[in-house]
Amino acid sequence: MCSSDLLTSLVLLAVLFGSVTWFTHDWVRPELTRQTKIATEQGTALYRGSAQALTGFREVSVFGTETYFRSLAESAAAIIAKSSSKAATLAMMPRYVFEVTVVVALVSISAVIILRGDAMADAIAILGTFAIASMRLLPAATAFLNGLNQMRASRFALARLADDLRAYSVP
Predict the structure, then answer these.
(1) At what angle do helices 29-55 and 66-116 cross, to 10 degrees?
(2) Rounded CA gap, 120 and 122, in Å?
């Protein structure tokens, strides 16, 4: 294998993995943050409604507003469930995009080698090297992306908690 083949392969891999990074950063991250924000806000609404219903239990029973508080809780729980499932799906998205990118890279490299008419022994060595490297890299990349997405998803709730702590801090 000559140095131009190696350089071509590395450029192809850089472009493919750069596109995965771009996809993750520009599409998954904002949507994941939005879904987490929705779930947090609805959780707060669910908590407030439950607290109001329980502290004013006698008034709720006397005035017959149980259905209002029940519908409030049901709608908040439905929105939380929907947002949480979307957030979980979005958190796994980079892994699948990464796997597809690895397959596309391997197929692209093999197509370039076949079209150039290179020896198949070189092709098998190159493909085997990239396949083994991607198998070793996939668990680490998945763990890294999952951790990153988890931190991104928690950003809104942590910022809100920090604001609440600052508001109640002793001067």
Answers:
(1) 170
(2) 5
Other beta carbons less than 10 A from residue 64's beta carbon: 8
Whole-angstrom Cα distance, residue 41 to residue 48? 11
- Please give the average per-residue pLDDT across 70-90, as a whole number: 86
Q: Give the relative orientation of helices 120-167 and 66-116 as an angle to the nearest 10 degrees.
A: 150
Q: Binning pLDDT at 50, 70 and 90, where does residue 170 land?
A: low
At 5, the pLDDT band (50, 70, 90 cuts) reads: low
Task: Tell me the residue length of the chain.
Answer: 171
The CA distance from 146 to 66, in Å, is 41
CA distance 134 to 99: 9
List b or e across 90-122, with b for residues whose CB sees 16 or more CB atoms inside 10 angstroms: bbebbbebbeebbeebbeebeebbeeeeeeeee
pTM assigned to the model? 0.63
Q: Distance between CA atoms of 78 and 69, rounded to whole angstroms?
A: 14
